[in-house]
Structures are given as structure tokens and as C-alpha cells.
From TrEMBL:
Keywords: Disulfide bond, Glycoprotein, Immunoglobulin domain, Membrane, Repeat, Signal
Subcellular location: Membrane
A GO CC annotation given for this chain: neuron projection
InterPro entries xref list: FN3_dom, FN3_sf, Ig-like_dom, Ig-like_dom_sf, Ig-like_fold, Ig_I-set, Ig_sub, Ig_sub2
SMART domains from the UniProt entry: IG (SM00409), IGc2 (SM00408)
Keyword Lyase recorded: no
Protein name listed in UniProt: Contactin-2-like
PROSITE patterns in UniProt: IG_LIKE
PANTHER family: CTX-RELATED TYPE I TRANSMEMBRANE PROTEIN, MICROFIBRILLAR-ASSOCIATED PROTEIN 3-LIKE
Chief place where the protein resides: membrane
Amino acid sequence: MIECHPQAAPKPILSWSRGTELLTNNSRITVTPDGMLWIHNISRIDEGKYTCFAENYLGKANSTGHLSVRDATKITLAPSNADINQGENATLQCHASHDPTMDLTFTWALNGVLLSLENSDGPFHRVEGKENIGDLLIVNAKLSQAGTFTCTAQTVVDNASASAKLVVRGPPGPPGGLLVKNVTETSVELRWSRGYDNHSPIGRYIIMGRSALSLEWKKMMTGEQFYNFFYFRLWMLFL
């Protein structure tokens, strides 16, 4: 879009030309009543001098400018979804093409929060390489670093982005809300809520117990992952 806002009274009639060619509305060119020039699906063939003409019964004036068209910034190799274990490293690739007359920079964000890549001791690092490569290295991944990573390649005039999901697997978290019920001389009922599985599906629970006479914990019984309570018999008094 190219704007034209002449100061004139009465309101002038506006028109546009490219070089010596008067522009009229077609499938690619639109001249609005308020003087806006829209060029759709713009390409390098549209480069050149454009002139806006303003005319009323008191006179006329014009203004000329040069339109330069730059190559759009595009992601040529987008990051792929990754699945790693806690403590492992991961590399997310991101390559881009851009107009060679402009500088290209890359930024990364995790769940919408911009990442700092300047700290050499931090977990996130830009992989050194060619200007059009902005790969991200994640070192010693933590559970909290799982989520959606977004790579943005940008110049001073435009940008392009692509995203990928990183899954970080770790040991399941502890059960919560442990509740002891229906205690008798020979039995007790235990209930609990599931903890976070941290992308490592819980296969079973193990119940440990010890007596007042021993500090050694012993495995009492196990259960399937679909149950979150067990009813079992006590062969000794547990603390």
C-alpha cells in the first residue's frame, strides 16, 4: 500500500501513474477514492517510480516516489517436534531465506516468552553457522523446559516464524493427598491422588512398610496403574 494525502480544498481528485503509465483498477491494482494505491501479489517487476496526482478546479500538484521490492523472509527448514529424556541435549533446526541486501537475525521463544541466548552458562544456545541458519541447542534439558518453541527469522522490514513442540520425559512425581482410612487390627485402606507422570506413564505403584521394631522399609504389594487405592492386610503393625 502506498499512501497519498495532499492538503487541498476543495477535495481534489486523485490518480496514480507508474512512469508514464496511468494506473487503473484491475486484478492487481486498486486505487481507492481516498488516494491509497494497493498492489496485490507484489513482485520485483513492480519496482519503479510512482506518481500521485491531485487536481481540483483551483490547480493541480503531484508527488513522486520510488518503490523498491525486497525478497520476503521465509522459513526454509522449520523445527521438528522432539521427544527427549530429562538431562539430554536437543537441537531444534531453523533455516530461512531473505533478501540479501538486508541483515537477518533469529530469535527463539518458549511458550511465548523470548529466550536469552547470550548466557554461555545457560541452557539455550544459538548454534554457530551461516547467517541463514538459526538452530537452537538445548543443554541438559529440564522438565520445565518442555513446551512450544517458536523460531522467528526477521529483517528490518518483515519476519517469518515456525514452531515445534518439545517433550521432556522424566520420572513420575510422587502421589499426592495420601489418606489412611478404615484402620482395623488386621487391615487398612490407603487412598491417594495421581501425581504428574511427566510423560512417563505410571505402570504400577509400590507400597512400602516397616514395623515399630525395624527401620527397614519393605515392599508390601503392587497395583496396576488404573487404581489409586488399595485394600490390603497387615501382617505387622506399621508406623
